[in-house]
Specification:
cysteine desulfurase activity; four-stranded antiparallel sheet; seven-stranded mixed sheet; Aspartate Aminotransferase, domain 1; Aspartate Aminotransferase, domain 2; alpha/beta; 2 domains; transferase; 14 helices; binds 4'-deoxy-4'-aminopyridoxal-5'-phosphate; PyrdxlP-dep_Trfase_major; about 400 residues
Length: about 400
């Protein structure tokens, strides 16, 4: 039975005050908070078995290796990957995208096309622009409508035999739109294109099944889903990961090194050069355990309740405009008060202990579409409450009064 008050006790940070007010943390799309269960795993790692992995014969190294590989299995299981070696540990979503973009340099030529969406985060635009510069390929963009939904009929028109890669986020960080990735993947495959889905914003809310999606690559960051920063994962279909060249050279990723020739290690180590964030990987596994114990159906149902409650309450404030009103969206509300800069609203909310994000949210093309410099973004997690939404709404009213 989902009990938010009970869940909140797992998050020590939620007890603190900011500017002498109880913290109301509504910046979950930027990073989520960490439950005690995950903090304990981090403390335990550094207190009892901190050691480098894979190379040591000694017991600590063996324990750390076992825990790290156990975490890989948890992630495999969570995303329903066919093989554990299809899970590559990365430093986060950005790293995973760059790893794939770098590898695709080998496969692309002049005239090939890459499709991204108008809703992308900069980390899902810039690596492809760099890839196009290197390879001579062209970048095409799926346009969006004013509700913040991608226009699928336009996507259909962009697809052709020249399409080699399609990159779309599962959920938009700027607006919360849930994109129709099942359709996007199926259509891309019909023209023989590979698909990478950016799951940075989806994984805190839903449990993707990479085999059911038949997706070629899926990336995410642990810090968006109750895990540590600097840690993430790239899922890739075995056939793709075998074809892609290594991203970085170094220790761990080799089979044999001589000055004449180096051979690479098997998957997943081929993509894991150097000493990884060992504790981060283990804590990522613990975060997945934590969220699964609550259950993604319960999380998503509760967050939808919060989203509906907050959308209605904020919509009742005169002069407040919500950007992104897609039919399928998750618990993100991007808004502005008429004639008031989002930064000023955010500053007043902070004085009231309310943490929101203001600005372009690393999605400048989305802001350009609406012809605005940025928005105030409140993003909810399963540990937020309706009372916190009320505090936000009162805070926004106060900001409006002070700034009008
Ligand atoms: N894509 C999306 C949709 C995101 O929201 C974010 C994080 N804001 C990223 C990519 C980048 O994630 P990270 O900074 O953890 O690499």
């Amino acid at each position: 039975m989902f009990n938010v008050e009970h869940i909140r006790q797992d998050f020590p940070i939620l007890n603190r005050q900011v500017n002498s007010k109880p913290l109301v943390y509504l910046d979950n799309a930027a990073t989520s908070q960490t439950p005690q269960q995950v903090i304990d795993v981090i403390v335990d790692y550094y207190s009892t078995y901190n050691a480098n992995i894979h190379r040591g014969v000694h017991s600590l190294s063996q324990e750390a290796t076992d825990a790290y590989e156990q975490a890989r299995l948890k992630i495999q299981n969570h995303f329903n990957a066919k093989f554990a070696h299809e899970i590559i540990f990365t430093s986060g979503t950005t790293h995973g995208i760059n790893l794939v973009a770098n590898g695709f340099s080998n496969f692309l030529k002049q005239g090939d096309e890459i499709i991204v969406s108008a809703l992308e985060h900069h980390s899902n635009i810039v690596p492809w622009q760099m890839l196009c510069e290197r390879s001579g390929a062209t970048l095409k963009v799926i346009p969006m409508n004013t509700e913040g939904e991608l226009i699928m009929s336009e996507y259909d028109k962009l697809l052709s035999a020249n399409t080699k890669l399609v990159f779309v986020n599962h959920i938009s960080n700027a607006l919360g739109t849930i994109n129709p990735i099942e359709y996007i993947i199926e259509k891309a495959h019909e023209v023989g294109s590979a698909v990478l889905i950016d799951g940075a914003q989806s994984c805190p809310h839903i449990k993707p099944d990479v085999q059911a999606l038949d997706v070629d690559f899926y990336v995410t960051s642990a810090h968006k889903m109750c895990g540590p920063t600097g840690q993430g994962m790239l899922y890739g279909k075995e056939e793709w990961l075998k074809k892609l060249p290594p991203y970085q050279g170094g220790g761990e990723m080799i089979a044999e090194v001589t000055f004449q020739k180096t051979t690479y290690a098997d998957l997943p180590h081929k993509f894991e050069a150097g000493t990884p964030n060992i504790c981060g990987g283990i804590a990522f596994g613990a975060a997945i355990d934590y969220m699964n114990a609550i259950g993604f159906d319960a999380i998503s149902n509760y967050e939808h309740e919060l989203l509906d409650y907050a959308t209605e309450a904020l919509s009742n404030i005169e002069g407040l405009k919500i950007y992104g009103t897609a039919k399928h969206k998750t618990s993100v509300i991007s808004f502005n008060l008429e004639g008031i800069h989002p930064y000023d609203v955010g500053t007043i909310l902070d004085k009231l202990g309310i943490a929101v994000r203001t600005g372009h949210h690393c999605a400048q093309p989305v802001m350009d579409f609406y012809k605005i410099p940025g928005t105030v973004r409140a993003s909810f997690a399963f540990y937020n409450t309706k009372e916190e939404v009320d505090t936000l709404v009162n805070g926004v009213k106060k900001a409006k009064m002070m700034l009008s």
